[in-house]
Fold:
Amino acid sequence: MGIAVAALTIFIWTAFVVIGRASAKFTLTPLDMVFCRMMGAALVVVPWGIFLVNRMRKERQAMPLQANTDKPYSLFGLSPLPLRQTLILGVFGGLLFSPFAYTAFTFAPAAHGAVLMPGTLPLSTALFAMLILNERFSKQRALGLALIACGGLLVGGVSLLKAFVGGNVWIGDVLFVCASSTWAMYSVLARKYKVDPVQATIAFTVFAVLCYVPLYGVLAYLQALPFGLVSHLADAPRSEIAMQMLMQGIGSGIVGNIGFTMMLKTFGPVKTTMMTALVPSLSALSAVFFLGEPLYWNLIAGLVLALSGVVLGITSSVKK
Structure:
């Protein structure tokens, strides 16, 4: 089951990156896509959260009075996790990750995101796991991380060098790394709290929706977004908005996040993010077939290195 969920999650993440590569053809801006992602996810997680919380309330009512003390739910009965866990997971997994990731596409090519987000994720996750979970890794896992990093550089190294030419590309690259770091922190904290995958996804999505959707909706309607950003929600075809709500909100935002959190529960944060490090190479190869991008030797070599690093990493031991 863990392997099947991992394969599905990697597929969804790869599709997310390929869609990001094709985003220049869309009417919606990156922050519009965040709005659609959260609205699409809200259509599912809000009623799902209400259902789970109502079931929890009934279970609490059947408990002895002395055991019926702590509330296991929060956010007006929408989140099935306690308030502290909802806020912490919501900030890193929902409120920060999506705006960082999608805003980065405004400044840097999608190919940079395909390398920097999943490519740096295992490294930042390993660091946070050492600091928060007190994990220590064998030489075999360290070698696996090194191979994954080399594979990512082979796939996108030439493209990343363009950040030094000038312009604002470096801003996008920094935002991609910030997005990766916030997701790494979510990964480690979800493991620390031992949260249920469905409950965690509902909790951080509801929190992000409540914080982002009303504010962005008003600013977009008034065309008063900061930093010169604009919204094309009013101009975009309804079919495009529906597609983004389905693909980004339900596909990536719900199915992908539940799958990822199930991977965390099964494999741990470091092994999980090492497996998702296959995404840069797979998305580059997918872009060859679906977007007509050229196939170079470095794509094959990067995939081989990343796959070798994943095999070394997931078969290694963890010391505490």
